[in-house]
Amino acid sequence: MKTKALVAFLALVCAYADAAKSPAKIRSIILNARHLGAHGIGYNTRSMEKLSVSLSVEDIPALIVLSSGRSDVAVGAQFALAAQCDPAIPALHDAAVKHQIDFLDAEDTLSLMAEFHECSPDSRAKALAMHESLRQLNAEESARIEKDSKQKAEDDARIQQNGMKLLDPEQAKTLTHEERLEIYRRSLAAMGLTEDGPMTPYQKQITERMYRSMVLDEARAAPNQ
User: How far is CA 15 from CA 11, 58, 62, in A?
Assistant: First the structure.
């Protein structure tokens, strides 16, 4: 019975050893995988061969974190992810879509994977396909961000122009209720406030006056009223 218990304990220890390593341990493994090359100490195919056996699938979540641009072993972590082959592909996709890592970094990692001889032909083909998929997603998101930014700039210019109309009673009459609300809300934002956000009693008093003047077009009250 004692022998069986010892065997079970050793099996548990081995299973724990195969589990995900600590970020510090992974970082050490990545640094030890560097080799001297034409451009100094860095990462290459030999590094990936070493990382493919030194790390495992369980380490992929930590590698995703370490592969971000904020890590001092980001490049090495990308090589380590590429060395994990097929299991790292969906993780790279999800991390890029969630902006945990940059799209371009994920694409570079997939390119490394597609050229790594230890990955199966099927995995290398999947890596190429995912690379193209992320490239398209990146292009679409960049276009959307550019479009949203342009629209915001146009809206800000229009609201600012309408705000100037409030200074002229005749031009102010041409503004719709919605346009007046836009001016009011933009003014609140400039003050760091929102309609439903927290306010001090004084801020609340000021914003109520602003609403009556900008939106309801009521005559402005004297400051001490």
Answer: 6, 12, 18
